[in-house]
Write a structure and sequence with these properties.
mainly alpha, 4 helices
Length: 114
């Protein structure tokens, strides 16, 4: 938890991140359902992957801002170590499952823009 003294800005950042995560999960479940029905949701899957990659890269920055907003007494070394690992790993997320350019090409083709 962020504690009772969290600023409105910190609570808003956490709320936005939570809503994005929930939406990505729902979109992923929808794709899983389409696959179980024998459909090939290539465009949809590429879109969710692209959005998920972007979210995954944003998350360490959001965590850093939340951590910085906490009083020093609440910032623990464990949080700092986990945050540092996340920041270092974030650039690798773009190559998991295809580069952003490839995913966006698949989306554009699926939408008839290419």
């Amino acid at each position: 938890t962020v504690g009772e003294n969290a600023t409105r800005d910190v609570r808003a950042k956490i709320g936005r991140a939570s809503s994005h995560l929930f939406t990505l999960r729902q979109m992923s479940l929808s794709i899983a359902s389409m696959l179980s029905e024998g459909k090939l949701p290539n465009t949809e899957a590429a879109l969710v992957k692209d959005l998920g990659t972007h979210f995954q890269q944003e998350l360490p920055q959001i965590a850093r801002e939340v951590l910085e907003a906490l009083p020093a007494s609440e910032r623990k070394n464990t949080y700092r170590r986990i945050l540092d690992r996340g920041i270092l790993a974030a650039p690798a997320y773009t190559i998991q499952g295809g580069t952003t350019e490839i995913l966006r090409g698949i989306i554009a083709r699926g939408l008839g823009l290419r």
